């Protein structure tokens, strides 16, 4: 661990408590598109997937994917207050930076809502890089977004760790080396 220079974090569920932010966006979007709104236990099984795959899993069709995603994004932008920083997350990032680590976020979320949430949480300026789902060539667990963050930071994979709350975060980090 002595060669670690960079700490990359997942956003939702790791730095930010976005439980209501995600559930309410999905419930609002499905309901407004006249789809059955499943129980949150069912929705939770799909959280962490790319958004188009989440909606496909819940609707069994790709017919309205574009309008579902657009409504989801609009809901989250208007309801960023439903996202909150986890206690101690900001202090942890500050402490890591004081020790000389580079910090970043790698998320499947869209840039607009990710930036709004990070700014509201007061940690946007503490991150050296933010790679979002709408700008990477693939989603975690593919290593592409992790590699993108490391490329921007001019860091090697062996000098970084990826911290997250889901299998896709862990695998994204492992696949990146």
Key traits:
177 residues; two-stranded antiparallel ribbon; alpha/beta
What does this entry look like structurally?
With 177 residues, the protein is of the alpha/beta class. Helices cover 47% and strands 11% of the residues. The protein has eight helices and six strands; from the N terminus they run ββααααβαβαβαβα. The protein has helices at 19-32, 40-44, 51-59, 65-78, 89-98, 111-121, 144-153, 167-176; strands at residues 6-9, 16-17, 84-85, 102-106, 129-131, 160-163. The strands form two sheets. It has a four-stranded parallel sheet with strand order 5-4-1-6. The chain has a two-stranded antiparallel ribbon with strand order 2-3. Helix 6 (111-121) links the parallel strand 4 and strand 5 (129-131). Helix 1 packs across helix 4 (65-78) and helix 3 (51-59) crosses helix 4 (65-78). The longest helix is centred in the first third of the chain and has 14 residues, at 19-32. The radius of gyration is 16 Å and the shape is globular. The model has no long low-confidence stretch (mean pLDDT 94).
